[in-house]
Amino acid sequence: MKRIIKTIGMVSILMLLGIGNSVLAADDIQIIKSGNIEYRTQIENIGWQEWKGEDEQSGTSGKGLRLEGIEIKVTNLPDKTHQVGVRYKTHVQNIGWQDWVEDSKTSGTVGKGLRLEAIQVELTGADADKYDVYYTVHAQNVGWLGWAKNGESAGTAGYGYRLEAIQIQLKQKSETSPVDDKYVAFKEYAPGSSSGGNTGNYNNDLNIPDGDPTGSTGKPIFGDE
Q1: Beta strands in the chain (DSSP E)
Q2: Strands 186-188, 153-157: parallel, antiparallel or unpaired by DSSP?
Q3: For residues 163 and 43, what is the distance between their CA atoms, to the nearest angstrom?
Q4: What is the CA radius of gyration of the chain?
Q5: Exposed / middle / buried, residue 82 (Cβ in 10 Å: 0-12, 13-18, 19+)
Q6: Residue 157: exposed, middle, or buried by beta-carbon count in 10 A (0-12, 13-18, 19+)?
Q7: 32-48 per-position pLDDT tens digit
Q8: How far apart are CA 186 and CA 161, in angstroms?
Q9: Residue 108 bridge partners (DSSP)
Q10: Quick count: other Cβ atoms within 10 Å of Cβ 175?
Q11: Cα–Cα nearest to 105, from 201, 39, 163
Q12: Which end of the chain, N or C, is surrounded by fewer C-beta atoms within 10 Å?
């Protein structure tokens, strides 16, 4: 009887506060907080961050923490009749490119201490051709790279640089692209190249214009941020 009274009392308090069942649907609230695309990352020493949406940063900057895993999903499209999903794969330390995973599944690893180094993201579904997905990553020793889109690689391979943060946008074909061709989104180390891996010569090695340390969004794309 005491348990029943306690339960009734709690329900009454929630109703008086005007929050009712909303406290029981926190996941649903997260899903609708922002539209189009959401993502979260598994971070060294932190674990899974909360879901981020539409061009928010997932990960960290300036803390030297590696991304270890990522999950991505398409939500709350402007046209509710559209059928759009997402698939993605990551380049992982000591593993290389993993297989594709789809719609909220984990790419990367959890509990193994392995860094993500690069990522590819592309859309799936009957209406995928009506949208573009754009993504940019913050890489160790480099900073924010240029934007990649629709399955292109973002990050580095062969340099041993960790990904530290990512931002993703989902846009309809009619919307303005964030891509600026001056800035590379991905660089793979080629053995025998004059610059070599881990040289610190990021400006030349990543084909970034001298004296211009910002991308199209005004964020640093190289340097030790």
Answers
A1: 36-43, 47-48, 52-53, 58-59, 67-75, 85-92, 96-97, 101-102, 107-108, 116-124, 131-139, 143-144, 148-149, 153-157, 163-172, 186-188
A2: parallel
A3: 10
A4: 20
A5: middle
A6: middle
A7: 334 589 999 999 999 99
A8: 12
A9: 69
A10: 11
A11: 39
A12: N
Q: How far is CA 112 from the centre of its chain?
A: 20
In angstroms, rounded to a whole number, what is the distance separating the alpha carbons of residues 225 and 222? 8
How far is Cα 120 from Cα 143, in angstroms, rounded to an integer? 18
Report in angstroms the alpha-carbon separations of 27 from 23, 30, 50, 127, 223.
10, 5, 10, 26, 37
pLDDT tens digits, one per residue of 91-131: 999 999 999 999 999 999 999 999 999 999 999 999 999 99
* Residue 115: exposure state from Cβ atoms within 10 A (0-12, 13-18, ≥19): buried
Residue 3 identity (one-letter amino acid): R
Mention every residue, 6+ apart, whose C-beta is less than 8 A from residue 44: 65, 66, 67, 68, 113, 115
The two structure tokens encoding residue 138: 């913050």
CA dist., res. 223 & res. 207, Å (int): 14
Does the pTM surpass 0.85? The reply is no
